[in-house]
Design brief:
Residues 1-20 form the signal peptide. By secondary structure, the chain is an alpha+beta fold. 40% of the residues lie in helices and 36% in strands. The protein has two helices and five strands, in the order H-E-E-E-E-H-E. The N and C termini lie far apart (61 Å).
């Protein structure tokens, strides 16, 4: 019976600790506002290093993509 309680306690601890690292990644996005086609648009760096424009992977490296745009 003690082994059952220990196993349940370990599962609870593992499930709580696994979620804490996922929450912190939301604040690490690298986004800039760029002038594209006459309007301000947010361009973000994806985990793969590519530029994302309107949520779509451009297939181009983030820094190469924004180097040709008016971004702040």
């Amino acid at each position: 019976m003690k082994k059952l309680y220990l196993a349940v306690a370990l599962l609870a601890i593992l499930s709580i600790s696994a979620c804490s690292s996922d929450d912190s990644n939301n604040n690490d996005n690298n986004c800039v506002t760029c002038q594209i086609a006459g309007s301000n648009t947010e361009v973000c760096e994806g985990e793969n290093g590519n530029a994302y424009y309107s949520g779509v992977d451009s297939g181009v490296n983030f820094y190469s993509y924004i180097s040709d745009l008016d971004c702040n």
